[in-house]
Each structure stands twice: as structure tokens, then as C-alpha cells.
């Protein structure tokens, strides 16, 4: 029986499960999600084969990575053969051998490394690894004998194992929060579109900028940033000549000339208040694009996410604007999600 295997951040399994069931319901598919004890992993059963034909990783907020596969009970003496049988001849460009991003999952890292070479050798012998194939093969270990094996279209999944984009914090960045914006830019903006959408000299507003972690990313790309915050901004950023610091309230500030090319915001505030602020900036065309973090409550995080996204979408639709609106719980996010809006006209 086929299942959907969904990776998420440990502690957000309920949100991942609720979301996949809601997405399936919207497509009128019957899907039931189960949270595994290992943490960071959700398994969905039901009309998953049909749902998999519609799924795209960018349409899911709390799922980092996914694939359609089969549950396997493996003989520890011959795991490779069990996985080959589970894959059933499925081909792919490459192979990801993974375990959930949880404390229990990390204990399986050694097993994942040990089995890689013999499994890849066997797949190559069977001609199941083929250059430029549309699919990627996945094996997810839950313990030494329980695993899931399957495949997913590469263009509908995350390009990195477990959906984790690992980044190094620049030594001269004012704070580690800079990684959140770097990951967001790489996630939401295709690299071949950066020359047009992240041009040097473009104008950016950073609401709640201090000490400048997000401003740092835009300055590094050559943009001119108006940093809005009553707190101080990193001296090196100010010395760059690309930053104008205004001591003002991010919720009441309005740019003198609109639209600015970019709005960025990582303020510690109730998510609905920030969502309403983003809705205002986007619907009034004060910005062309925006990346904003919403700090989620401890309870009903999926429901709050839906409410916030609805507020933003409703504001844009009332103005009859064409737009792109997406949100992701990124690897460098914690109790928050990152929202991207692009106003097209």
C-alpha cells in the first residue's frame, strides 16, 4: 500500500498532518495522516497516489520534503535487497538516504551512511539511477528494520535531502537571523531570476531592522535599504553607504516614494498584526515584493497560519491585483513561518 512520507521540523508534526489532510480535502481526496513517534515525520494513507499527482513542495507550509513510497520491513542482514524490492524497479536521477530531523532520527545517521555505497551500486547495476531522470529515489529509515522507500518528481520536491538547506552564517553578519532571509530568498526566488528581481540599487525597506541581520543580506546583494527601527543598526552596514536608518515605528512608517522594490520584516509581534501590515503594503502597492516572518503562537499554529494567509489574500483580491503568495516553515525558522508576496499588477 502506497503512503505519502512527509518530513517536517520536530514539534510541528501536528501542523504537518493537519495541513496535508486539509490539502487533500480541498482536492476531494480522502487522506488520513499519522504522526510517528520518532519525531519530524508524518505518514499519510488513503488516496495518496492521486494526491501525489497534484502536490508541489511549494504549496505546503509545514512539509520540508515528501515522496510517495511503500513501508518496508527489512532484514538487518540484507537491507539492500529489501529496499530494491520495495522500490519495485522505480528509476530516478539520484538517491537520497534519510532519517527524520529529530533526536531519534539523528541516531540513524550511521546506518544511512553505511548503506549508501552498496545500495547505489545495486541501483546502478539495475540501471535504476539515470542522469536527468524526472524523478528522485528516496529511502527513509525509522529504525534498523522499518523504512520507507519511493520516489518523487524533482521539480515538485526540495532539491536537498530532508528538505534542509544548510547555510553558514557570515562572520560579519550582525546576527544569525540573516540566515532566515538568505534561505527565504533561495527558496522563493529562482536563481535565474535574481538578476531582474534583486538588482543592485533597488530600493528595500526593512521594518524592525535592528541590529541589521536582514538588512545585511540586501546590502550584500547591492540593494539600498531604508532600515526602520528605534534601535541601533550595525556600524559596518551604516558605513556601506547603502543603508539609511530611520528611528520610527515599523507599523506606522510609510515610504516617501512607492512602490519600493522590496519590503522585508522580521519583527517580534503577534502574527495577525504583521500579516495585516503586509496586506496593507502589498494591496496599496507600497512594495513590489515582500518577505516577512510571522511568529506563531504555541497552540493552533496551523489555524493561525491559515487565518493570516487569508487576510493577505483577501486584501489583494479586493484590489483586483494579480499576485503570488506563498509561505514556508524554513529550516532556519523556529516558532515562525516565512511569507513571500509578489504583486504582479
| Secondary-structure content class | alpha/beta
Q: Average pLDDT across residues?
A: 97
Give me the CATH architecture of the largest domain, please. 3-Layer(aba) Sandwich
Strand order of the largest sheet: 2-3-1-4-7-6-5
User: What is the CATH top level name of the largest domain?
Assistant: Alpha Beta
How is this structure best described in words?
The active site is at residue 295. This is 23S rRNA (Cytidine2498-2'-O)-methyltransferase. It holds the Pfam family FtsJ. S-adenosyl-L-methionine binds at residues 177, 210-213, 229, 249, 266. Residues 79-150 form the Ribosomal RNA large subunit methyltransferase M THUMP-like domain. The strands form two sheets. This protein has a seven-stranded mixed β-sheet. It has a seven-stranded mixed β-sheet with strand order 10-9-8-11-12-14-13, sandwiched between helices. The longest helix has 18 residues, at 301-318. Strand 13 and strand 14 (336-343) form a beta hairpin. It is elongated, with a radius of gyration of 22 Å. The chain starts with a strand and ends with a strand. The protein folds into two domains: 2-163, VC0802-like; 178-343, Rossmann fold (3-Layer(aba) Sandwich), CATH 3.40.50.150. The protein is α/β, with parallel strands linked by helices and 345 residues long. The protein is 31% helix and 26% strand.
